[in-house]
Amino acid sequence: MLVILVLCTSFLSILYLTAPSIRKFFAGGVCTTNVRIPGKVVVITGANTGIGKETARELARRGARVYIACRDVLKGESAASEIRADTKNSQVLVRKLDLSDTKSIRAFAEGFLAEEKKLHILINNAGVMMCPFSKTTDGFETHLGVNHLGHFLLTYLLLERLKESAPARVVNLSSVAHLGGKIRFHDLHGEKRYCSGFAYCHSKLANVLFTRELARRLQGTGVTAYVVHPGVVMSEIVRHSFLLCLLWRLFSPFFKSTRQGAQTSLYCALEEGLEPLSGKYFSDCKRTWVSPRARDKKTAERLWNVSCELLGIQWE
Fold first, then answer.
1. What's the pTM value of the predicted model, to 2 decimals?
2. What pLDDT, in 10s, does the model give residues 193-215?
3. How far apart (Å, rounded) are the C-alpha atoms in residues 314 and 316?
4. Which residues have a Cβ under 8 Å from the Cβ of 185 and sit 6 or more positions away?
5. Dist. CA 173–CA 278, nearest whole Å
6. How far is CA 307 from CA 178, 288, 294, in A?
7. How confident is the model at residue 11 (pLDDT cuts 50, 70, 90)?
8. CB-based contacts of 202: which residues, under 8 Å, 6+ apart?
9. Is 16 a catalytic residue?
10. Which of 160, 195, 214, 249 is deepest in the core (most CB within 10 A)?
11. pLDDT, tens digit, for every residue of 86-132?
12. Positive or negative torsion for Cα 201, 179, 68, 238
C-alpha cells in the first residue's frame, strides 16, 4: 500500500512539473487571423468567467464594443473592469441576463435593442453542466432550458438586429458530449428518467441541431451561424459535480486553459470567408465531424418547432 502511495505521489509530482509542456501539447488550434473589428458590436453570454471572459477580452482587444450578458452582475463588472484595464478599451459593458428565466431574457433583449442600433456578433457561450434535477423558472429541465431554450429565445429576439447589421454571425457553444446526446421528445424535461450527465449531452446535441436549422433558415440574409466544441477546458462549468471538480483538478495538465478554449469561438467569430460553412460544427479552429443524430434534418426541424411551442413564439 505504501509503495502504491509513493508511486502515485511521484507520478502526480512529475505530472504537475511538466504541466506547461503537456498543456501546450493538448492546446489544439489557434485563431491566427489579425482582423480588427472597431465599431462592431458583440454580445457574449456568460462572459463574466471562463471561455466567455477570454473571448470577450480578445474581441475587446480588437476594438469591438462588447456586452457581457450574465446572471451575476457583480462578477460581470469585475470581469469587465479587468478587460477594460487589459485592453485599454472602455467599451466593455455588463448587462443582466438570466438564461433560466424567459422574463430576464426578454428584458435583456428589450434593453439592448433600445440601447444599440447594431449587432454584428452574438456568441451564445453560457451553459450549465451536470446539475441535479431541477427546473427553470418557466418549468424547463435546467440543461435544456439554459443551454438550448434560453439561447434559442435570445437569438430569436435579437435576430432582426443581426439582419440589419449584416454581415453578422451567431456562434453557439456545444461540446463533443453531443455524441452521447439524443433528443427525447417524449421526455424532454427528464421527468420520466433523469441523468445529469446525459441531460447535458442532450442539450449539447440540441445546440448543434439548432445551429444547423438556424443556418438553413438564414440563407440569403447575410447572417451566418456556427457551432463550436471548445475542447476540455479548465473552467467553472463543472461546479455542480464534486466528482468532476476532483477529476478536473487531478488531470488539469491535460486540459486547455480558458484562453486556449476560446480560440475556436474566436475563429468562428472572426475568420474571413467562413460563410459557405454556415451551420457547420468546429473544433480546434477547423470544421469537424458530428454524430449522425446531429445531422438529422427531421429532428432539427422538429426540435425547432417544439422549442417555439415551449417558448410561445412563432419563428418561421
1. 0.87
2. 999 999 999 999 999 999 999 99
3. 6
4. 302, 306
5. 14
6. 18, 26, 16
7. very low
8. 143, 144, 181, 182, 183, 184
9. no
10. 214
11. 999 999 999 999 999 999 999 999 999 999 999 999 999 999 999 99
12. positive
The residue type of 136 is T
Set 16, 156, 194, 200: catalytic member:
200
Q: Which three cell numbers stand for residue 115?
A: 440601447
Smallest CA-to-CA distance from 27 within 15, 19, 37 is with: 19
